[in-house]
Amino acid sequence: MQNANPIFGRKVFFINPSLFIEHLICDPLKELEYEVYILNDYKYAKPVISRFRDSICFIAIDSEMSFSEWYNFIKSFETDIDLSNMFVGVLSETAKLVDKEKFLANLNLAGGFINIDKKAIGVFDKVKDVLDKNDAKGRRQYLRLNVTAALVNGYIAAKDKLYSISVANISSVGIACVFKKNIEHLFVENSVLPNVSLTIARRSIVMNCIVLKKLPIESDPTSMTGVLLFAKDTASEVRGYIRKFVYDFYDAEMNLVKSKITKDTSSYKTPDVYKELPTTGSVRDDSDSEDGSNIVIDERSNFGSASLDDV
Question: Digits of tens for pLDDT over the chain (311 positions)?
Fold first, then answer.
């Protein structure tokens, strides 16, 4: 049975990706609002991902260590209580079929082993398919950031007056805000609210919004909560700016996590069992299979995503 669809989705880590993989896979995934993190130094990988046990992890094995060492690195997950159920996939631009078979036959690779040739045809779709089949986004389709007035503040211009709103969270598609009940008449559900001004990281943006809904606040009868969607005429550059703002904040929090951990200093050179692993030649080239990734649906129960605040 597939995991219940989590509300907030799952963090997606790419360990040791080449610049080619970053441009081919990571950047487009960010554009599509998957919660993607890049760990260029594999020595951060195990200490970081062990804190987010329901995350999805892709490991690029073409540099920093030999295939034998990467094999031992992934094999070590099996004896680590925090990593033994980690959802792992492998990416390689140089592996041969014999290498692919050794990894698939002897390691728990729920995310498969995805070969990337020079043409890279269909590679992004394969990775995205793994993520979608395993609830990477959950019910949240857009990355949302809870904010304070120090990060984002807002105003509404109406009849030559400015009315302050308190932005609670923001994504590339809209905001949730708190406003005083005496301006409730401006928030007509399913109608356009013009001239909404947001200051985001010192940049001021004026846009039209659609009032999706408004709700009373039991603890404060003088205020209400509003959910606003950015209108369709909002420039793609503006949405991109907000998306980058959200991602930059997520990355900053993950960097804080990294600053508090001890890097993995283990050597994965021994035992060198990789060269002795038997092969049968049964693994086909990606071009011969339907999707080439040997993916499976993660049937584990949810562990519950760790919060960055828990670190």
Answer: 344 456 778 999 999 999 999 999 999 999 999 999 999 999 999 999 999 999 999 999 999 999 999 999 999 999 999 999 999 999 999 999 999 999 999 999 999 999 999 888 999 999 999 999 999 998 888 999 999 888 999 999 998 899 999 999 999 999 999 999 999 999 999 999 999 999 998 899 999 999 999 999 999 999 999 999 999 999 999 999 999 999 999 999 999 999 999 999 999 999 999 999 998 887 776 644 444 445 444 543 333 333 333 32
**Residue 23 burial (10 A CB sphere; 0-12, 13-18, 19+):** exposed
Beta strands 36-39 and 203-216, pairing class: unpaired
DSSP string, the chain: -PPP--SS---EEEES--HHHIIIIIHHHHHTT--EEEE-SGGGHHHHHTTSTT-EEEEE-SSSS-HHHHHHHHHGGGG-TTTTT-EEEEEESS--HHHHHHHHHHS--TT-EEE--SS-TTHHHHHHHHHHHTTSSTT--S--EE--TTTEEEEEEETTEEEEEEEEEEETTEEEEEEEGGGGGG--TTSEEEEEEEEETTEEEEEEEEEEEEEE-TT-TTEEEEEEEEPTTS-HHHHHHHHHHHHHHHHHHHHHHHHTSPPP------S--GGG----S-PPPGGGSSSSS------SPP--PPPGGG-
* pTM for the model: 0.87
